[in-house]
Amino acid sequence: MTRFIAACVQVNSRDVMSDNLARAATYARDAHAAGARLIAFPENVSMMSFGGENVRAAAFPESEHPGLTFFCDLAEELQSTLIVGSLHVKVAGEDRVANRCFVVGPDGKVITSYDKIHMFDVDLANGESYRESKTFRPGDSAKLADTEFGKVGVSICYDVRFPHLFRDYAKAGARILSIPAAFTRTTGQAHWHTLLKARAIENGCFVIAAAQCGDHPGGRQTFGHSLILDPWGEVLADGGTDPGFITAEIDLDRVDEIRRMVPSLQNGQTYKPC
């Protein structure tokens, strides 16, 4: 399928999972009614808790996760492919949890899952401090989702700052890059649009980036602005700062057109590192 409608669901997740899931599903059904058959959700779509203890308490083993069951049922109901930005999943033998994205097919079956590789361990100039590695166990594997729309490179939030991951996806056949996020308002205002445009342009890929928005427990503020971009870096849809959804038509022939114009995937050279 070379032409279809994609959607990003933008939500303000808080610390009651059932409420978060219900709101996300409402927007997804509305997006489906608008024609979307590939629907993406943000990072932490089922829960935005404050503090490691609360995050761990709200995590479940994958086989028992109510959020995963919910989205598998929703995918089957809508007969659509869902990119479930991330759920918090208990890991056997670990005190930390996985921040795990799931790609679910229209049959309600998981196509693949991906654990966020790069941990957001930073101190911002405004005094905000984050140490994801204290709560989350980083993943160690890139994952391509082989969907009815072709191959999708899967990532989560802070991964966007590590361009080699997306170049590897493009070289492996991805035409779409998924970058669900809960970007902080501070870093989002500075870098969100620029980073996503760069990942689209340098790889000749569509980028689908569903995002959290608004104020969350513990004083965390996220940027919103879910984006769908084409391989030329053009913004096809922008979710602004409020909950809701956006849609855009994806024409995968555009990928081939752009890659012929700027064949950077073929022109890359190997070289000795510094």
Automatic annotation (TrEMBL):
Pfam families per the UniProt record, alphabetical: CN_hydrolase (PF00795)
- Name the SUPFAM superfamilies on file: Carbon-nitrogen hydrolase
The segment(s) forming the CN hydrolase domain are: 4-252
Family according to the record? Belongs to the carbon-nitrogen hydrolase superfamily. NIT1/NIT2 family.
Q: Name one GO molecular function term.
A: hydrolase activity, acting on carbon-nitrogen (but not peptide) bonds, in linear amides
Q: Which residues cross the membrane?
A: none
Judging by the UniProt lineage, the source's domain of life is Bacteria
Q: Which organism is it from?
A: Thalassospira profundimaris
Key word Plastid present in the record? no
Q: Which UniProt keywords apply?
A: Hydrolase
Query: What is the protein's name according to its record?
Result: Amidohydrolase
